[in-house]
Amino acid sequence: MIQAGKAAHVIFDMDGTLSDTAKATSAGFHKLAKEWGFPPVTDEAIRNAMGHPSVEFCQIILPTLDDRMAEKFVAELDILEEAAIRKLEKSMLFPGIEEMLAKLNSLGIDCYIASTGSNDHVNCMMEATGLGGYFASLHCNEKRKGDMVRRILNGSDPVEWLLVGDKHIDASAARENKVKSLGAAFGYCTPADEALFDAVLRKPEDLFELVRLA
């Protein structure tokens, strides 16, 4: 069990932590990359780049894109991705996610989203999956997750908070704000990422075994 005070608030990353976003992103990315004349990219490369701001995400996979072209690529990708998310609905979620959130809410634990994704992307995911009602507030569309987390805490005691994510930027944001972190190994958290978190969740319900909740 994580050695911390009783957690009353949990901050969640979204892509790769709550949602298997690559399901919606990969097909559109492959289609656009082919149309733009790029060589094929792997689903693994797309999945591993998840969690970065949209332009940076595209440039990690297609490093020859300058900022202007990456923004254009993102705009086209967003249209395809949103259509796929709305079609897939709750199947976008990793197994056990909605049950975990419902239990947290029933225990009086406040939940928040901190995502580097755009407002449109996060709102689309919340609407399509029906998760919006589980969260006290949604925070997104910022490059620095550490700043986002600091604003969510709003001066409160970090001992009362947890952050659940899947990438090094999530672990770093938690550490920067003195918040305990959990890595979503059921999501896109790689073994290298796992080492950066205070503990690892093999499945969503492990949260209730690893942490004392208020």
Task: Describe, in plain words, how this protein is organized in 3D.
By secondary structure, the protein is of the alpha/beta class. It folds into 2 domains: 9-20 and 91-210, Rossmann fold; 22-89, DNA polymerase, domain 1 (Orthogonal Bundle), CATH 1.10.150. Helix content is 46%, strand content 12%. The protein contains 10 helices and 6 strands, in the order βαααααβαβαβαβαβα. Helix 8 links the parallel strand 4 (161-165) and strand 5. Helix 1 (22-35) crosses helix 4, helix 3 packs across helix 4 (67-88) and helix 4 (67-88) runs parallel beside helix 6 (119-129). 39% of the residues are buried.
Summarize the structure in short:
This is phosphoglycolate phosphatase. Its EC number is 3.1.3.18. By secondary structure, this protein is α/β, with parallel strands linked by helices.
- Spatial strand sequence of the major β-sheet: 3-2-1-4-5-6
Largest sheet: 6 strands, parallel
- The CATH topology annotation of the largest domain reads as Rossmann fold
Spatial shape? globular
CATH architecture assignment name of the largest domain? 3-Layer(aba) Sandwich
Structural class: alpha/beta
Level of helix content? 40-55%
Which segments are poorly predicted (pLDDT under 50) over 5 or more consecutive residues?
A: none
| Distance, first to last CA | 14 Å
Mean model confidence by pLDDT: 93
Strand content: 5-15%
Number of domains: 2
SSE arrangement, N to C = EHHHHHEHEHEHEHEH
Number of helices: 10
CATH superfamily heading of the largest domain? HAD superfamily/HAD-like
- CATH top level label of the largest domain: Alpha Beta
Rg over alpha carbons: 17 Å
Pfam family, one: HAD_2
Organism: Leadbettera azotonutricia (strain ATCC BAA-888 / DSM 13862 / ZAS-9) (Treponema azotonutricium)
Catalytic activity: 2-phosphoglycolate + H2O = glycolate + phosphate
Protein name: phosphoglycolate phosphatase
